[in-house]
Amino acid sequence: MAPLSVLWPDASLGARGIGLPVSAQGQPPAVAYVLPLNEGTARAVFRPACAAVFISTTTSASPLPEAVLITLFDLTPAEARVLLRIGGGLSASKSASSLGIGENTLKTHLNRIFAKTGTRRQADLVKLVSDIGTPLAAHGP
Fold this sequence. Notes:
Number of helices: 8
Radius of gyration: 16 Å
Mean pLDDT: 75
Number of strands: 3
Strand content: 5-15%
Helix content: 40-55%
Structural class: alpha+beta
Order of helices and strands: HEEHEHHHHHH
Largest sheet: 3 strands, antiparallel
């Protein structure tokens, strides 16, 4: 029987993706973060792509978390900020307060985020942000 990665190439990335050293001799150390584009992500826009790649060096800043989420899910900047807070475990009321927006505005953003990410509950968003992993962890919400 063929290995799982041959039968289903996305399986080799796992749910969280992988980090690969990509340094060239004489250049600063660098890491390529390869993140899976699963159903419910921006994969439909980038079809037939199955992953997004972010390169980070020790001399450059990691990609801003908002930029990663905007790219993966076609979110607006405001939606990305809401997703980072909710995905980081903040309640809806604390997220709204920290962003300086009303709870009704936050609920509108959440409904759009649910539609764009293929999720239904705030707990799903916490798992989604956790599964994306390393590029978001560098900055936090």
